[in-house]
Amino acid sequence: MKDFAVFWGCTIQARFPFLEKSSRIVFDDFSLPYKEIDGFTCCPEKSLIDNVDHEMFVVTAARNVALADENKVDIVSPCTGCVSNLATVKGELESNPKEKDTVNSLLGEVGREFEGSAKLSHLVPFFHDSVGSHKIKQTIKKNFNGMKISAHYGCHMIRPSHALRNDDPIDPVKYDNLIRTLGAESVETDTKLMCCGQGLDRVDQHDNALHMARMKLKELIKAGADALTVCCPSCFLQFDNNQFLMMREGEKLGLPVIYFTELLGLALGHTPEELGLDLHRVSAEPFLKKWASLTADNQEEINSGLNATGTL
Amino acid sequence: MIKSDLDLKLLEKCAGCGACFSICPSCITIPGYDPREVIKDILAGEFEKWLESKHIWQCLECHYCLEMCYQHYGFENAMTALRTIATKRGKFPPQVKRGWDMFAKSSRLGDPAMPARKKLGLPEPKKSGKDEFLKLHELVLKAREAENEKKTGTDDE
Ligand code: SF4
Ligand code: SF4
Predict the structure, then answer these.
(1) Do B75 and B128 share a structural domain?
(2) Cβ–Cβ of A42/B25 closer than 8 Å?
């Protein structure tokens, strides 16, 4: 496996450093070759930056990719937005040599050059493709048998597909596969591919943002999901923080939102506190309690030798 | 101005299609959000009235329409073009302005939360590329100014 730099992005480091923590924990447990490199900036975020100044959007992303090129590493990010934005610009420059030249003559002024040799991956498809379910199953210490978990891919994990090319953009499977690898049932819903809606908060439309979050959360609760798993800080903000705000206003919700790296970390035997699950705004307790009771049940079954049913 | 940003041929086909309306998350959930109306107006040369509308900011850039579209086009192209024009004229939601300002000043949309990092036992964050970024921004702005000076008087589009 080629060494890779982790592109943490602004939101994880500024608002959710515990997500960096759980990511590092799982990288270490799988002995993955990640490197820290100096010099990254904002990816940059598309809706805020691209709408205002496309050229700065391109130059900034190209510079970030150039740093990975120079260090001869790939990029893996636990943020869907970062990967999608970097890949969008990489794709744009690769299909437009003239623009690439213009950008490179600018980057030359600060001693950089965009080649585009670094492969850009989001952490979920990366675990699916480069670590693989076999290795994951071998490494985990506990599974989620009996738990119902629903994956929210997050639009930018898989779209735009012409730039990312990592899963089917309208019928993705990799995140679901990983949930099953961890032993849980992957809950499918009608709103599976619906955008989380956090973007609406970024343009001062909070009520609309809440409305979109509510639709998905209600459907999942009705479907009996024990948790929603996400792997994007923006989706996390939407479903954890905004769900909390709705609950504070008296809405009956309360669906735990678990980051992919936290889910994996739990299966690897780390405690919720180590992984920072106690820092969520919506309590993960109901999920953890049910899981603990199932694990106890399983253990009892093993102890009393009742494993003739073939379920173990 | 809008012509340079949009492929009007594709947009015309889009106006005759409209299929995305049924899968676009904002169309489904936000009353009044309807890119079909916006696209009709763009084709009729009447896009100006949308520049102040909150609707152009309700496109989530989720790219769902782009992926579903038989011409790989998508409603979002029209919405993006209008947002770009609106911001050039200084019309944006306050949060977008704040986000841009922070980015232009610091190269990021937020600095690492140091006390929380310490508590979690996370290492020092790596050095940011702020200085290079600021220099690049300056160069881009200068080049643009020179370009505009060349253009002045010959083209006011
Ligand atoms: S990108 Fe915008 S217009 Fe297209 S489906 Fe998403 S919200 Fe709707
Ligand atoms: S974006 Fe494509 S599929 Fe959607 S309405 Fe327009 S032409 Fe039809």
Answers:
(1) no
(2) no
Give pLDDT tens digits for A230-245.
999 999 999 999 999 9
Residues B70-80 pLDDT 10s: 999 999 999 99
Instruction: Note whether A200 and A207 are within 8 A (CB).
Output: no
Shared domain check, B99 and B37: no
Residues B114 and B66 in one domain: no
The domain containing residue B138 runs over which residues? 94-156
d(CA B47, CA A208) in angstroms, rounded, equals: 24
Of B88, B104, B123, which marks where a domain is finished? Answer: B88
Point out which residues pair with A186 in neighbouring strands: A149
Range B44-66 average pLDDT: 96
> Any idea which ligand is nearest the CA of B35?
1
pLDDT of A278 higher than 60: yes
Q: Do residues B68 and B112 share a domain?
A: no
Number of domains observed in the structure of chain B? 2
Task: Write out chain A residues lying below 8 Å of B93, CB-based.
Answer: 203-205
Is the confidence at residue A109, as pLDDT, over 70? yes
The residue out of B73, B88, B103 marking a domain boundary is B88
Distance CA A150, CA A83 (A): 22
Co-location of B110 and B66 in the same domain = no
**Residues of chain A contacting B72 with CB distance shorter than 8 Å:** 162
Instruction: Return the CA Rg of chain B.
Output: 20
Output the CA torsion A283→A285→A286→A290 (10° steps).
Answer: 160
Q: State which H helix or E strand residue A124 sits in.
A: helix A123-126
Going by alpha carbons, the residue nearest to atom 5 of ligand 1 is B24
Q: Is A76 helix (H, G, I), strand (E, B) or coil?
A: strand
Give the residue from B97, B136, B140 with the most A CB atoms within 10 Å of its CB, the best one to mutate: B136
Tell me, yes or no, whether B30 and B53 share the same domain: yes
Is residue B98 located within the same domain as residue B48? no
Write the residue in A39, A52, A212 that is nearest to B100 by C-beta.
Answer: A52
Is the model's pLDDT at A303 over the cut of 90? no
- Phi and psi dihedrals of A184, rounded to 5? -90, 165
ipTM attached to this prediction: 0.93
Q: Report the nearest-CA residue for atom 5 of ligand 2.
A: B18
- Kindly tell me the number of DSSP H helices and DSSP E strands found in chain B: 9, 0
Taking CB atoms and a 6 Å cutoff, what residues make up the pocket around ligand 2?
B 13-14, 17-20, 65, 68-71, 73-75
pTM for this model (two decimals): 0.94
Decide if B58 and A44 are in contact by the 8 Å CB cutoff: no
For chain A, which domains are there? Answer: 4-122 (1.20.1050.140), 133-299 (3.40.50.11810)
Instruction: Note the pLDDT tens digit of each residue in B103-148.
Output: 999 999 999 999 999 999 999 999 999 999 999 999 999 999 999 9
CB contact under 8 A, A110 and B113: no
